[in-house]
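Support request, priority: normal
Reporter: lab tech (M.K.)
Component: structure prediction queue

Hi team, I submitted a job for Prenylated flavin chaperone LpdD-like domain-containing protein from Parablautia muri yesterday, and the status page still shows it as pending. I've pasted the exact input below so you can check whether something in the sequence is tripping the parser. The sequence length should be 125 residues. Please let me know if I need to resubmit or if it's stuck on your end.
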Amino acid sequence: MERTIKKSLSFGELTLKITEVGEDWHLLLTGGEKPHVGCAVLAVPRPSLTGSGKTSVTSSVLNLTGHKDETICRYLAEEIAKRKNAVTVCTGGVHVDHITKEQMEEVLSTVKDMAEACGMQEVEG
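Reply from support: The job had stalled in the queue. We restarted it manually and it finished. Here are the results:
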């Protein structure tokens, strides 16, 4: 099953393609002027080490040299892994020439909204 979430930004668009792979999830986040794969994050759910009974995650990250996509890909992978209690991989990249601090904050806020939408709904074809 696959689903796509698109969100408009003041300076472009982000696209999140969500694919259910058996019991696991693959997320592909792209956007900006030059969408690319700048990062891959594998998040594996596990019981919290605090003993609280909550679900936590262990993540592995691969970054392309010079790319700063880890923050948004890690956020998505870890949130969905916790919410779905499923192995989750997030790959992607967003590139905007001369991005401002305000634009970076807008991207992160939008990614958080996307995680909420993805985590709260089942994937539909």
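The chain has a mean pLDDT of 92. The domain at 2-107 is CATH 3.30.230.90 (Ribosomal Protein S5; domain 2). Let us know if anything else looks off. Ticket resolved.
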